[in-house]
Amino acid sequence: MRLFLLLLLASPLRAEEAPLASPAPLLACLAATGGGACVGTMAGGCEAEAGPGSEGLCRGAETAFWQARAEAALSLLRDGEGQVQFHARRLGWPEPVPTLDALSQGFEAYRRAACDWRAAAWDGIHAGYEQQDCLMRLTAGHALLLEGMLDD
User: Fold this and answer.
1) Who's near 92: CB < 8 A, 6+ residues apart?
2) Tens digit of each residue's pLDDT (9 = 90 or more) over 40-51
């Protein structure tokens, strides 16, 4: 049921924003394997259709797909946040106890720093591609981690 909700909430970009970025191959891969091996499937299909120079747009579209899934998972996790915090306090967790806001802020800071670092290592148009690739991969990993937490 939760996976169904995630699929409903994680809609791709509107068609006019990335007309060749179909999530169908990515969704099929996730249904078959359910894991990180699927990252880049949507962007790859988009790039094959659109041709050279489409990498940034296509990877951006897949990043938006994963971001929507991460946000959907966070929304569902918020229902149990109080219980996790109660558990942490009961176990004597040092203050501040973990929060989903802290998790989100920490991830955003890490993703920004890591992908800026990656882009800074490249010249010219390659910098943009490398940054988009980094954003896509880290966002996908974050979404998959959050979705895995739903089953805990």
Assistant:
1) none
2) 999 999 999 888
